[in-house]
Amino acid sequence: MLTTTPGIDPHRIGVLGIYAGGGYAVHTARMDHRIKAVGTVVPINIGASFRSFQPDGPAAALDALADARTEEARSGETTHVNWLPDTLEDATTVLSEIRGLVIAHDVHLREDFQAPGWLWIHERPPRSSRRRARVTAT
């Protein structure tokens, strides 16, 4: 999609990933050589993190995932698994077991952090005005 978007130089594509997106960005850049630059902020391997949340280990997490997919295929209903506690108080209670859970709860479940879109394409300003250009949050 980016390579066919007007104004995008397909030889100068970069990605920025934050938290789980950092892990995705690194993996994607390894697999897609059109990506020439990668930036990350606190990158994590979210799959490994989720699997470590299972008290019985990674194999149990993968078994639970397989069971959920099978049930979804049979019933047509999506299975939702809460990887994070429902309340900040619950997250604080188990913080001693899983580092960073309170921060993860705050980042991923706060309403003001929810983003309806995931890709923003900003046009580059003309060369003469680049120094004055400012990035604005959407």
Automatic annotation (TrEMBL):
InterPro entries: AB_hydrolase_fold (IPR029058), Polyketide_trans_af380 (IPR051411). This is Peptidase S9 prolyl oligopeptidase catalytic domain-containing protein. It comes from Streptomyces monashensis.
